[in-house]
Amino acid sequence: MHQNKSVTEFILLGLTQDPEKQKMVFIIFLVFYSGTVVGNSLIIVTIKFSRSLGSPMYFFLFYLSLADICFTSSTAPRLLADALSAKKVISYNECMTQVSALHLFGAMEIFVLVLMAADRYVAICKPLRYPTIMRREVCIILIIFAWMGSFTHSITQIVLALKLPFCGPNLIDHYCCDLQPLLKLACMDTHVINLLFVANSGALCSTSFFVLMVSYFIILHSLRNHSAKARKKALSTCTSHIIVVILFFVPCIFVYARPPVTFPVDKMVEVFYTIGIPFLNPLIYTLRNADVKNAIRKLWSVKIMS
């Protein structure tokens, strides 16, 4: 157990050791992080106070935006602080907290994306039963289950991390604490823990992605029977979801559903997954969704010249 550890802190090597490049990293990711917080907060406030966005789809989008802010906040502030620090030290407890937060909010993103797909499936394939099936109480219960599932996943990950004894090197060749880089530093045979890690995180990413792709295939297939106008509106919504799902799950599967092999692109893939995607999500959902754009204009009284 972790009581045997002698390492009380780790040193994160970050994205680069070059001082000039570190300044660039700080500027670039400050823009990304600020944009993520502002963009997702705008969606959260708009959905909360706009009467026109009361449907289940926007109820789930509210929680996706909330998960986006929390997910990127589990890594971005530390990355920004380390870019300005000479020594990038993180204590053992802070490291374990980061592992827990990363997986809690990452899992929440996954579960909310699955719920959004389920909502679209019912809306398009069972339109007459949609108001009954996707009642407000049902949506609230589904979100509670999503949080419970996320906590369960996060606890499983942290239990695996706490079992790792660290007694030697404490240099983490990464910009954040995650199980993959930590496994390389543990002074024990990590084969079984790595298998459990891949079975947990890897299976969550891969299975969810497979389910989502199948559900969207069924949704798109069923659109053949709809009118041209209904098909166009449904396609517009579903395309946004599919873009977000692909952008989120491809890096997720690359990072978590594979043997413990290090690739040169690992850090950039995880940066895109933890900081890039939460930044892009509000852009994708607002730029492709007329209802959200109109609600933002009305709520914030922005007059755009036609």
Written description of the protein model:
The radius of gyration is 21 Å and the shape is globular. Strands 2-1-3 form a 3-stranded mixed β-sheet. It is mainly α. The chain has a single domain (2-300), classed as Rhodopsin 7-helix transmembrane proteins (Rhopdopsin 7-helix transmembrane proteins). Helices cover 72% and strands 3% of the residues.
List its traits:
three-stranded mixed β-sheet, single chain, 11 helices, Rhopdopsin 7-helix transmembrane proteins, globular, mainly alpha, 306 residues
Order of helices and strands: EHHHEHHHEHHHHH
Distance between the termini: 65 Å
Strand content: under 5%
Report the helical percentage. Answer: over 70%
- Let me know the CATH homologous superfamily: Rhodopsin 7-helix transmembrane proteins
Profile the largest sheet.
3 strands, mixed
- Integer count of domains: 1
Stretches where pLDDT is under 50 for at least 5 consecutive residues are: none
Q: CATH fold name, please?
A: Rhopdopsin 7-helix transmembrane proteins
Q: Taking Cα atoms only, what radius of gyration do you get, to the nearest Å?
A: 21 Å
Topology:
Layout (H helix, E strand, L loop, with lengths): L8 E4 L6 H31 L6 H18 L2 H8 L5 E3 H34 L4 H4 L2 H27 L8 E2 L6 H5 L7 H32 L5 H29 L9 H22 L2 H11 L6
Parallel strand pairs: 1-3
Antiparallel strand pairs: 1-2
Helix pairs in contact: 1-2, 1-3, 1-10, 1-11, 2-4, 2-10, 4-6, 4-8, 4-9, 6-8, 8-9, 9-10
